[in-house]
C-alpha cells in the first residue's frame, strides 16, 4: 500500500535524506554534486508546480517526485518530472508506481504529455522503469552527461502523451 501526498514543509528533511546521496553521487541528476540543501529544496520543491512524497503502509517516506512545466508559455502543456526512491525501497517497483501516479496527477492538472529531458543511459533501472510506465525513448544525446564514475555518457529524451 502506497500513499502519495503533497509534500509538506515537515516532509523536507526526509526527502532531502533521500536526495542528498543521489545528488552527491553524480550519476543520475544534472545537479552539482556539491549542491546545498537550500539549493536542492529550491530545485525540488520551490520551483516546481507540485511536489509529492510517497509513504509505505507503515508511514515511512520511501519516495518523492515533482511535476513542473517542461517549457514556459506555449510549451507548458507538457510536463517534466523528477523522482527519487529511498535506497531501502529500491528494486520493488516503486519508481514505476511513482511514475504512473505522476502521470495521473499530470492529467488531472491539464498536462497533455510528459517529457524527461535527461535520462542517463547508464541508469538502466530508471530506463526500464520509465519504459514500463509507458514512456518511450524519442532521442538520445551522445555524451550529454558527465557521469562521476564513467565520464561522458549518453542521455535519453523520453516522452509519453497523456
From TrEMBL:
Keywords assigned by UniProt, alphabetized: Acyltransferase, Transferase
Q: Entry's InterPro entries?
A: Acyl_CoA_acyltransferase, GNAT_dom, Mito_N-acetyltransferase
Outline the extent of the N-acetyltransferase domain: 2-162
Source organism superkingdom: Bacteria
A Gene Ontology molecular-function term?
Answer: acyltransferase activity, transferring groups other than amino-acyl groups
Task: Extract the SUPFAM superfamilies matched here.
Answer: Acyl-CoA N-acyltransferases (Nat)
Q: Where are the transmembrane segments?
A: none
CDD domains assigned to the protein according to its UniProt record, in alphabetical order: NAT_SF
Q: Which PANTHER family match?
A: ACETYLTRANSFERASE, GNAT FAMILY, N-ACETYLTRANSFERASE ACA1
**In its UniProt entry, what is this protein called?**
L-amino acid N-acyltransferase YncA
Q: Which organism is it from?
A: Amphiplicatus metriothermophilus
Amino acid at each position: 500500500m502506497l500513499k502519495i501526498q503533497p509534500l509538506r514543509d515537515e516532509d523536507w528533511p526526509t526527502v532531502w535524506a533521500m536526495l542528498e546521496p543521489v545528488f552527491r553521487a553524480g550519476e543520475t541528476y544534472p545537479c552539482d554534486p556539491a549542491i546545498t540543501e537550500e539549493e536542492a529544496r529550491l530545485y525540488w520543491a520551490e520551483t516546481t508546480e507540485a511536489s509529492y512524497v510517497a509513504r509505505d503502509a507503515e508511514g515511512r517516506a520511501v519516495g518523492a517526485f515533482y511535476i513542473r512545466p517542461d517549457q514556459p508559455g506555449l510549451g507548458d502543456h507538457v510536463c517534466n518530472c523528477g523522482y527519487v526512491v529511498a535506497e531501502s525501497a529500491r528494486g520493488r517497483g516503486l519508481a514505476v508506481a511513482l511514475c504512473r501516479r505522476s502521470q495521473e496527477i499530470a492529467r488531472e492538472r491539464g498536462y497533455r504529455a510528459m517529457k524527461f529531458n535527461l535520462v542517463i543511459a547508464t541508469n538502466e533501472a530508471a530506463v526500464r522503469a520509465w519504459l514500463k510506465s509507458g514512456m518511450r525513448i524519442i532521442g538520445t544525446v551522445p555524451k550529454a552527461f558527465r557521469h562521476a564514475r564513467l565520464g561522458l555518457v549518453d542521455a535519453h529524451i523520453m516522452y509519453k502523451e497523456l
